[in-house]
Amino acid sequence: xxxxQGRAVYDFEGDVANGELTFQADDLLHILNQxxxxxxWEAQNANGEQGLIPEAYVEIISYSEPxxxxxxxxxxxxxxxxxxxxxxxxDNLQQPVETQSFNNVSETRDYSQHENQVSPESYxxxxxxxxxxDNSSTTEQIQKRRNLPGGGNFGLSQPNRDTKASSxxxxxxxxxxxxxxxxxTFAKSGGEAYMMGVMPTTKVSETDLVPIIETQNGxxxxxxxxVFSCQVTSPKxxxxxxxxxxxxxxxxxxxxxxxxxxxxxxxxxxxxxRLEEKFPTVCVPPLPDKQISGRYEDDxxxxxxxxxxxxxxxxxxxxxxxxxxxxAHFVTCTEDKGWKQGKRRAEKDExxxxxxxxxVQAPPSTLDQEKTESDIDQYYKFIKTMDxxxxxxxxxxxxxxxxHCGPFKKEFQKIGSAFADISKSFELDDRPxxxxxxxxxxxxxxxxxxxxxxxESQPRKDLMPLFxxxxxxxxxxxxxxxxxxxxxxxxxxxxxxxxxxxEQKMDPADVATVAQRGDVVSxxxxxxxxxFSKNRVxxxxxxxxxxxxxxxxxxxxxxxxxxETLILYND
Length: 571
Fold this sequence. Notes:
Elements: E1 5-8, E2 28-37, E3 40-44, E4 50-54, E5 58-62, H1 89-94, E6 97-102, E7 105-110, H2 120-129, H3 182-187, H4 191-195, E8 210-215, E9 218-221, E10 230-240, E11 245-254, E12 261-264, H5 265-278, H6 300-317, H7 325-332, H8 336-347, E13 360-361, H9 369-427, H10 435-457, H11 463-502, H12 508-567
Parallel strand pairs: 8-13
Antiparallel strand pairs: 1-2, 1-5, 2-3, 3-4, 6-7, 8-9, 10-11, 11-12
Helix pairs in contact: 7-8, 9-10, 9-11, 9-12, 10-12, 11-12
């Protein structure tokens, strides 16, 4: 057990199911691990109970270093041969690997590898060079875990034996998978630390500020002065390692520069992870899936390219994301060295997660907490209802595509075949006055066969584009509950602090500051709700208009073909 100790500043009621430790103010806690994730530590109380605690609730009171024997020297630095072998040479030869235990975590060291260590910079370069092909995803990496009480999903890493007063918010680490728990979406992203005033050392620059304005429609992000677009085009299969690894590279062309940059799906995946990590209350749509039911397999690459275009286009239009440094780096960087430098900056960004709220410039007025929570609750119901309706529309859409390519086509072809059979039978009676009728009936059969083929090809023009845009919204709707949960968690924290004030456990000025920070979270949530709502109105209007236009043209084509056939019967 580490000798690092802390004293609880506030009461905390932990959720045992998520591996959290309950404690009271002034309780002494042994800090076991400060590298759990931003805003969380692992600790043990006086009763020997172990679990996760919020960093902002604890102050460090001792830093005594743990006592441990120094590691043995590497074999290459052993005593000279003349000194004679140690007492038990055989055992030493059989055990070149030493295992030590720190904080109940076994750490194995192979000193024979001492001379082959690689610098952190080399690891960074290798990470870029050795990205796998498109069959894997960085957002699906397996997280190392330790056994804790309960079934919580915490990506716990091995502890850093160097003690520290507070967790380093700039340290890059593994991504903790998200759930609907307020602790994983809020506290683990640094939300608890932000609410309790744990600040990074770097000051916010003017270029990083994210203003929110009040309009007749409510609170909104400051709109873009110029909206740019970004084409995703020219997919090309490339390979490396003499063809052992292959992947698809896409060309991105931002409208403001016209300069092409090459990006793989892995680069998109990296950007998606950075955006989700940085902006807690901004809706970042999921990337297109590896495969979507109902897709045309021969058009897989082109369809993915279209969906990546939708995704990038939405990022370009978002007032917050499009102004961010990481997004600008993604759409403009053309050199490998510059890419790696920008990647490191993004991963070490101090103003991500909870700290991002420090960059938000909210209106100075205090929000009505009760009304705000009521509005958020109402919007949550709307999101749930819309999610259900979109899923239903997707199912109907997919069923309609199946029918167009199968039953509808076959039914019209059956009608065409029946007319063709009649015309063939009439051909056996070659009287002159019946020949024109035979030709007309034959043409009727051919027309209905063509109509069947039209039904088969039509989904590419109307149902498939509608399906793709609906599928995009399905992804955004799945991300929205986490955004609303961040705001909910901030309000919970405000109420906890007000309760502590009533019990004279917290200074009123500190409580007022916490409430002000809660307003910043609420303002950003309301601004994102407005952004989503405006996009929804524009997008659904456009997508349904396009669908109806294609439907009208489709049925007009069928009508024209039938009218052309009808003319043959006029004589």
